[in-house]
Each structure stands twice: as C-alpha cells, then as structure tokens.
Amino acid sequence: WWAADGSFSGQGDVVYVHEGCALIVDYKFGRVPVPAAASNMQLAALAKLAFDNLAGVKVVFCAILQPFASRQEPRVVRYQLADVPQLRRYFGNLLAEAARPGARLVPGEEQCRYCRARAACPACSELMVRETQADVAALWADWSPEKKAEAVRLAGLAKKWAEAVERKAKADLKDGLSIPGFSLGAGKSMFKVTDTQG
Fold first, then answer.
1. DSSP 137-168
2. H or E element: which one contains 15?
3. Residue 196's CB: how many other CB atoms inside 10 A?
4. I need a surface site. Which of 30, 71, 77, 143 has the fewest CB within 10 A?
C-alpha cells in the first residue's frame, strides 16, 4: 500500500476486511517486546494506509502478535475515519523533519535494530566508534544496571553493524573493487571421501 499522497508505503502481514471494518495483524518473531499497540507507530501508519487504500472502510483495528516475547492476548488499537486528519498531520510532520537538510540523526539500539542502512549511516558508525572506545573491563563495575543493559543492547547492534559492513566489503571485493589491505581468500575446498577405510 502507498499513502494517498505517495509519501510512504507499508503492508500488514494479514488484513481482513468485512462490512466497513478492517483488521490488520502484524507478526513479530523477535524476543524483544515492541511498543504496545496503542502507541505503536507502525500500526498507526498501517491504519492510515488502510484508510487510503481500502474503499468503504470506516474503522481499522490493528494488532501485533509476538509469540516469543509475550504469551498474553494481543492488544488491539482502534482507528476511525475521524482520526485520519491527525494521522496525516503526524506522519506528514515526521517525514518533513526526516527530509529536512541537516536533520539530526539519533542512532540507538532500538531505532537502528532493523534498519538496513546501518553500515552506511554516519550516525550509526559514529555511535559504534564512540561506544567501542570505552574500556569495558575497567568501567563495568561502576556502571549502573541501566547502563549495563544499554551496553548489552548496543553490543547486539554493533554485531549487526559489523556483519553489514563485512557483507558490503565482500560484495565490493567480489565486484572487483579495491579495499586497501583486504582481499578475498580462495575459500574452502570441498572433497569427497570414497575410501572410508583408508
């Protein structure tokens, strides 16, 4: 689905429509809980897109199912046609701010967790450099439990960032591009054992 003005797109995992009502279900299989339905930006965006794309729909219900993070019944949020102007303003302001020249980038584990641009993002790179310069062994005992939790989350982000950088570097090297100090190895060779006794 695309927004009526073409400004953004999105799609729920499952969409049911019946007599002017729509139910959008989004599945999350991670173990980190996502924001609750009532405050979930993704669900609000999907509701806006549903009103823009589903003719005759007057009410949209949105729910997240996250079986590995919660065994509770899914929370559902309800949007009505009267909410559309507010949703339009909200996402319009967000997109305008994001596209503004010199807009401030705010990297972090939560907001960068699923971003595919981690390896190319200057703010994420700066965050990784800054955080990895800390002497964890010396500072760990002085950190609060909250700081330790933040560090563990950032370690996960750092792993994903490093994996993304390595994938990009390997792709460049395979395409014949030069990265000083690095080259592709011959890789593992396969062989078949035909004489098990030998």
1. HHHGGGS-HHHHHHHHHHHHHHHHHHHHHHHH
2. strand 14-18
3. 5
4. 71
d(CA 57, CA 75): 21
Return the biggest CA–CA distance within the chain: 79
Strands (E), 19-135: 21-27, 59-65, 76-80
pLDDT in tens, 9-56: 999 899 999 999 999 998 877 666 676 778 788 899 999 999 999 999
CA dihedral 136, 125, 130, 103 (to 10 degrees): -140
At residue 179, what are phi and psi to the nearest 5 degrees?
-125, 110
Whether 185 shows a pLDDT value over 90: the answer reads: no
Contact 165, 119 (CB under 8 A): yes
